[in-house]
Amino acid sequence: MKHIQHFINGMFVDSISQRSFSKLSPxxxxxxxxxxxxxxxxxxxxxxxxxxxLKGEWGQMTQRQRAEKLEKVAxxxxxxxxxxxxxxxxxxxxxxxxxSHIDIPRGAANFTAFSHALGNEPTETFSMDTPDGSKAxxxxxxxxxxxxxxxxxxxxxxxxxxxxxxxxxxxGNTVVVKPSEVTxxxxxLLGDVMNExxxxxxxxxxxxxxxxxxxxxxxxxxxxxxxxxFTGETSTGESIMQAAALGLRNISLECGGKNSAIVxxxxxxxxxxxGVLRSAFENTGQVCLGTERVYVxxxxxxxxxxxxxxxxxxxxxxxxxxxNVNLGPLASLEHQLKVLSxxxxxKKDGAQVVIGGGVPNLGASLDGGAWVEPTIWVGxxxxxxxxxxxxxxxxxxxxxxxxxxxxxxxxxxxxxxxxASVWTQNIQRAMTVSHSxxxxxxxxxxxxxxxxxxxxxxxxxxGIGREGGVHGLEFYTELQNVCIxx
Length: 486
Ligand code: NAD
Hints:
Layout: E1 2-4, E2 6-8, E3 11-13, E4 20-24, E5 31-36, H1 40-55, H2 57-60, H3 63-79, H4 81-92, H5 96-99, H6 103-119, E6 124-129, E7 135-144, E8 147-151, H7 157-170, E9 174-178, H8 185-196, E10 204-206, H9 215-221, E11 227-231, H10 234-245, E12 250-254, E13 259-263, H11 269-281, E14 291-297, H12 298-313, H13 333-348, E15 352-355, E16 375-378, H14 385-388, E17 395-401, H15 404-411, E18 416-417, E19 419-423, H16 427-436, E20 441-444, E21 459-460, E22 463-464, H17 471-476, E23 477-485
Parallel strand pairs: 1-5, 8-9, 8-11, 9-10, 11-12, 13-14, 13-19, 14-17, 16-17, 19-20
Antiparallel strand pairs: 2-3, 4-5, 6-7, 7-23, 12-22, 15-16, 18-21
Helix pairs in contact: 3-6, 6-7, 11-12
The structure holds nicotinamide-adenine-dinucleotide.
Nicotinamide-adenine-dinucleotide binds at residues 151-155, 160, 178, 180-181, 210-212, 216-217, 220, 231-233, 236, 239-240, 254-257, 288, 390, 392, 418, 458, 462-463.
């Protein structure tokens, strides 16, 4: 069984109290690791190390030198690909085929993409005349913000953590990461890679533990943290916003979604079915961008539903190593209970279960795992919590609509506003509908097609701020105006 430690000031250490918690496999419920749980003092040590590192070798490096180091980190993740893959799949239960083409390569790419994007950003200048007839020039100079707290979820652990750590370090900051208690391993492994690549001690720190009254809260409340970047549930985002109010620290919040797919009669049916299948079920539905509400134009509703059901019936559930497996378990037994509570609620609220709706029988050896069946419902009223709240499981509700106005109103009928996908061959319609949706990201005839230079973030209760490409500069740097009179 693994023993997972904090990574503070370049060293793997236990908590001062030696307190630890169990990490269970979502595949079969066995304990696979004992993870150290940080107290306030452990977190304070990590923050002090990060603060000191700002003034050390890291703070003295040129942007190019930092970028070279981060490129090495990306390269080393790829060299140690199998270790990262093994760790990520053990923690999450996801298929190796999925993690090997999304989680680990993107985890590495996050270190190169941002150092390239940020290194090529021009400096803003404004020339002006002065009242006494002279001139002045204003230069917008950027400085690192300082110590960044990085609070992460469990669904794409390495990918979402490096999505924040990559740009934070590229901008010259130092970080203290609090990975999800459900998926602690790859964040710890990255500490080893940081040492191998000569990232100075204190630049990258990891503390393990839970949220409230634990490592997460101790970190966000630490006054030496200069800014907090968070990905997770909207309700946690609210607590983090309150913590950040103390000392007026900046926040970036990437929160939940209740995303829609809108399928018009003029779509390419094959692409739409395959796209919605992926968007609702990939990663066992545990993707913030995942589709839980599908609206299909009435004229093609029956055909679409039939074809989607057929494809869902072909999905193969199994452990990470199983050949041709499509879906793993949910990430934890707690999450399984939550998702199954929505499966029950859907039935109580009068849904017709098109397929799935329960726990699969995968044999005695997997009985203790967090398995649920991929599920499609029809027939729910808009007021059902199943259509209003984020479930974060392999399920979707499919509903017919007649025209554009109706479907725009339906899609916007939620407190969330992360993303949507629109399936149509009509470019005019695609543009009009996309722009009418109250979301941060729209995909037309695709889903989760990511260019790391683009703005990423949600509207409404799906978050605050945008990360990605140069947009991260706004959060990870302090913009200083220097006005020179001449
Ligand atoms: P969560 O909010 O329960 O936990 C996220 C992290 O916050 C964990 O590390 C947790 O320990 C920590 N935390 C919890 N309470 C805290 C507190 N009071 N103070 C400080 N830290 C605290 O989320 P989760 O269940 O791990 O992840 C699933 C959620 O993440 C879903 O809602 C999903 O939509 C969202 N998500 C959003 C995006 C996005 O980019 N918008 C991406 C992935 C996941």
